[in-house]
UniProtKB/TrEMBL annotation:
GO-annotated molecular function: ATP binding; ATP hydrolysis activity; transmembrane transporter activity
Residue intervals of the ABC transporter domain: 5-229
A Pfam match: ABC_tran
Keyword annotations from UniProtKB, A to Z: ATP-binding, Nucleotide-binding, Transport
InterPro entries: AAA+_ATPase, ABC_transporter-like_ATP-bd, ABC_transporter-like_CS, ABC_transpr_LolD-like, MacB-like_ATP-bd, P-loop_NTPase
PROSITE patterns: ABC_TRANSPORTER_1, ABC_TRANSPORTER_2
Family affiliation: Belongs to the ABC transporter superfamily. Macrolide exporter (TC 3.A.1.122) family.
GO cellular component, one term: plasma membrane
Gene3D superfamilies xref list: P-loop containing nucleotide triphosphate hydrolases (3.40.50.300)
Organism: Marilutibacter aestuarii
Name of protein: ABC transporter ATP-binding protein
Length: 230
């Protein structure tokens, strides 16, 4: 199986006043195309930093990040922005929906810079909402939806551009257990049935079990990889 993500000797250091804080120490990692990976570890272990680097939201201090043959660590800020819009969908803990827009208009947001007509944007948003099980909620605003439904809208927004990679930062962290299980089942379906490669940060061991394998970080070092039995 070919790797979608290849990481070599990755480091990340932040400058805080006169002090340098090294968050990641020489990470080496291969994520195969079509995998569903959970990133776990204690607070401060570097999970979100690694997630942001893979998603092109941040740049490394050293090492290489290659995604589908492209060295994103060499890209400028403008190149990274364009690359993200074409290749990555993001799902966050608190949904990050625009409160004044309907579900459908929220889903359309990533398409606004694409050379598409309004009708094409609407059609793609309707398909994405149907895929996440909310075909009848397109005209509802976020405050008219439950937390689980809002997260489904956020996932529809993440997949509307048909990206190869989904980056999920604690996608069930603000949900009750039943809603969390439904969201995790949806992510599994996107992975298994639609070929999305998913990288998910979570503190929840039960959530991690829905992934094909888990990576454990501790103090900026990859300490363990666990493959889950299907």
């Amino acid at each position: 199986m070919t790797s979608l993500v290849s990481i070599r000797d990755l480091t990340k250091t932040y400058q805080r006043g006169p002090e340098k804080i090294e968050v990641l120490h020489g990470i080496n990692l291969e994520i195969p195309t079509g995998d569903f990976v959970s990133l776990m570890g204690p607070s401060g272990s570097g999970k979100t930093t690694l997630l942001n680097l893979i998603g092109g939201l941040d740049t490394p201090s050293g090492g290489e990040i290659e995604i589908e043959g492209q060295r994103i660590d060499r890209m400028s800020a403008g190149q990274l922005s364009h690359w993200r819009s074409q290749n990555v969908g993001f799902v966050f803990q608190f949904y990050n929906l625009m409160p004044t827009l309907t579900a459908q208009k929220n889903v359309e947001l990533p398409l606004l810079l694409a050379p598409l007509s309004a009708a094409d944007r609407r059609r793609r948003a309707e398909i994405a909402l149907q895929l996440v099980g909310l075909p009848e909620r397109g005209k509802h605003k976020p405050n008219e939806l439950s937390g689980g439904q809002q997260q489904r809208v956020a996932i529809a927004r993440a997949i509307v551009s048909d990206p190869k990679l989904l980056i999920c930062d604690e996608p069930t962290g603000d949900l009750d257990r039943q809603s969390a299980e439904e969201i995790l089942a949806l992510l599994q379906s996107l992975n298994r049935d639609h070929g999305k490669t998913i990288v998910m940060v979570t503190h929840d061991p039960k959530a991690a079990e829905h992934a094909t394998h888990s990576l454990h970080l501790d103090k900026g070092t990859l300490v363990e990889q666990v493959r889950h039995v299907a």
